[in-house]
Design brief:
Keywords: Metal-binding, Zinc, Zinc-finger. GO terms for molecular function: zinc ion binding. The protein is mostly helical and about 220 residues long. Helices cover about 45% and strands about 10% of the residues. The strands form three sheets. A three-stranded mixed β-sheet has the order 1-2-3. Helix 2 packs across helix 3, helix 3 crosses helix 4 and helix 5 crosses helix 6.
Length: about 220
């Protein structure tokens, strides 16, 4: 059984893929059918590329079934992985309804295609949103012939990634050295930041003493 965030890509050499391949290799070696139970919709069941890459080498060597809910929660249906991959990879040309496939397999393929379309639309909408909002942070210059930005771009000094907020960039820059040894070494080689010298008395205490001195001074009659 596998469970993974649907919006995260599967790593080709990640633990989940290795576990799935181990099960598939065992089914191939023992000539036994394989059943994969997916709890909820995860990154494998919503990503046609990950699905095809993971199962394509095995679909002709044994029966592979995916058990997943399609309409009612906690009501699981059996999906033919072979037919799903043949359809999603383009080997079956035409609409899914044109083929004599089990209802659950057709329903699953349809959902994969719909989810892919939604994700593409989300990407387009995000790009349009960024383009529109960036234009609205600019005003004409005095001469009216050119433009200047009213805000600076928060860009990571290590990897170049852009952020909309400086505090998000700062948190990211603290995490990057932990993941990248090269960046960590460069950060450790940076000279320490200079701090302003502080007097022995705080500014607040100095102000309070100044007010006391004024109160104690004699009045001129």
């Amino acid at each position: 059984m596998t469970r993974k965030n649907p919006n995260k890509e599967f790593s080709g050499d990640g633990d989940t893929v290795r576990q799935i391949k181990a099960v598939l290799n065992n089914g191939r070696a023992t000539n036994r059918p394989v059943m994969l139970a997916v709890n909820d919709w995860d990154g494998l069941s919503t990503n046609s590329v990950a699905l095809v890459n993971s199962f394509r080498p095995y679909i002709n060597e044994g029966q592979i079934t995916m058990v997943i809910w399609l309409q009612e929660l906690q009501v699981f249906r059996k999906v033919s992985v072979k037919h799903a991959i043949m359809m999603l990879s383009g080997e079956y040309e035409g609409d899914v309804d044109d083929f004599d496939l089990p209802w659950a397999t057709k329903e699953y393929i349809g959902k994969i295609q719909v989810i892919a379309a939604w994700k593409n639309n989300i990407s387009v909408d995000i790009l349009e949103l960024r383009r529109e909002t960036r234009n609205r942070t600019r005003v004409p210059s005095v001469d009216g012939n050119s433009w200047f930005y009213t805000s600076t771009t928060a860009r990571c000094r290590y990897c170049g990634r852009e952020f909309t907020r400086a505090d998000h960039r700062g948190r990211h820059e603290k995490e990057v050295p932990l993941e990248n040894p090269t960046v960590r070494a460069a950060k450790e080689a940076e000279p320490p930041k200079k701090r302003a010298k502080r007097s022995s008395k705080s500014k607040t205490l100095q102000r309070e003493q100044g007010f006391e001195a004024l109160d104690d001074s004699p009045l001129i009659s």
